[in-house]
Each structure stands twice: as C-alpha cells, then as structure tokens.
Design goal:
The protein has 2 domains: about 60 residues, no CATH class; about 120 residues, no CATH class. Helix content is about 65%, strand content about 5%. Strands 1-2 form a two-stranded antiparallel sheet. The longest helix has 28 residues. The chain is globular and about 75 Å long. The relative contact order is 0.09.
Length: about 240
C-alpha cells in the first residue's frame, strides 16, 4: 500500500467480479480464517496465499466500518454492470426518452454504490441519500438534454460535426452529476468531520480537514474514472468512420 503499484493491485482485488459470486459459507470461512490469524490460532497447513485470498474476499464484500455484507450489485466489484450503462449512454441518435432513461439508470446505480460504500463512521440520515440521488439525477438529465438541444440548434455545425459532438455529451453530464452526487450525499462529513486513526488503527479524533480531502479526492475520481469509457470510444469511432 506504500506504492502506486501496490495500491493498484489492491484496487484490482477489490473490483474482481469473481467476488460477486462468493457464497455465504465461503465468506464466513474467510472471515473466520482472518480472525484465527489475528488471535494466533491458525490451524496447521494454512498458507499465505490462502490468507491473502481470505483478505481479498472480506475487503470486497464486508463494509470496513459497519462489518455488514454489502448488497451484491453495489459492491465495488459490481463495476462490471457499468458496461451495459456505458453502451446505453453512447448509443447514437438517442431520443429524449432514451437520454433521460440511461442517465437516470447510471446515476441510480452510482448513488447506490456511493451509499453502500460510504464512510459510515458518522451516522447519516436517509434524507441525505435521497437528496444526493435526486441532485445527481436532475443534474445529469438536465446537462445531457440541454447540451443535446443546444447542439441540434447550432446551425453553424455540419451534421457530421453535430454527431461527433453529441457523442461526447455523456461525459460532462456524468462527471458533473457524479460530483453533485458525492457532495450532496456526504456533505454532512464536511460539517461533522470523519474519524482519524493512528498507525495502530485507534481513533484519535474527528477531522473536518480529513473529510474535505476525502470528498475532494472522491469527487476527482468520479470525474477521471469515466473518461476512458466515455471519451475514448467516440474518438476511436470517428477515426474508424473516416
């Protein structure tokens, strides 16, 4: 975890779609194995590979703050379901109804993932979740529909140019909505702060500065992560068409 490569490998473990299909009994075995290791009561013959496998399963499925099982579609490993949403967002010649539907579906999934993987050291009312969800959906739909209407009315653009620009509309709509979603759902953390731990994992206090850093970095990732799947395909398609 002290190097970028180490954190990247850890991230790949967290989003491994195979963890979506881990059974309840296998999850209990993994958790028990880690507990045995923690208390020095490991059964003979357990290898490091088995321990790391158990750690991977626990981190991908169990919420670190609540110790509750995260509902399967909203785990970080559920990112595979984004493929369907990306296809829908990038469909050419979309109608108003299809634009609204795919933006709503994408932001509904994002809101649930954000809530399921939230920092739960501070209690947050359900109203905050609803507020964030509505804010994200409204902003995504408004930006996507508004940009499409503006492009259609831009007479100085040729039909080919309009089509090319339209292909990039999903990205600003999704990116801005993702930021809105994170800020609205988690702005309580900015007011109350989040727990800060020392190197031994003991809570030493609550910090609004740490909360600000957490929200800023989370919002930034919500802008950067969609770029490869929402920006590169339109560029590649335009090159192939030429």
């Amino acid at each position: 975890q002290t190097s970028f490569y180490g954190r990247f490998r850890h991230f790949l473990d967290i989003i491994d779609p195979r963890t979506l299909f881990v059974t309840e009994s296998r999850l209990k075995e993994a958790v028990q194995l880690l507990e045995d290791y923690k208390h020095g009561t490991l059964p003979p013959g357990v290898t490091n590979k088995e321990l790391w496998g158990a750690q991977k399963i626990k981190q991908a499925i169990i919420h670190p703050d609540t110790n509750e099982t995260i509902f399967m579609p909203f785990r970080m490993s559920g990112i595979i379901s984004l493929l369907l949403q990306v296809v829908g967002l990038l469909l050419p010649n979309q109608t108003l109804a299809s634009t609204v539907f795919w933006q709503w579906l994408n932001q509904s999934h994002n809101a649930c993932v954000n809530y399921a993987n939230r920092n739960a050291t501070k209690p947050s009312p359900t109203s905050k979740f609803i507020q964030g969800y509505l804010g994200a959906v409204i902003s995504a739909v408004s930006i996507a529909v508004g940009l499409n209407v503006l492009i259609q009315r831009a007479n100085k653009f040729t039909p080919a140019t309009r089509l090319l620009i339209q292909r990039f509309v999903p990205f600003p709509a999704v990116a801005s909505a993702n930021i809105c979603n994170v800020v609205l759902m988690r702005h309580t953390e900015l007011e109350e702060g989040i727990d800060v731990l020392d190197s031994n994992g003991a809570i030493v206090g609550s910090s609004r500065i740490a909360a600000k850093h957490a929200l800023l970095e989370t919002a930034l990732t919500r802008v950067v992560l969609p770029m490869p799947i929402l920006v590169l395909p339109p560029i590649i398609m335009s090159i192939l068409e030429k």
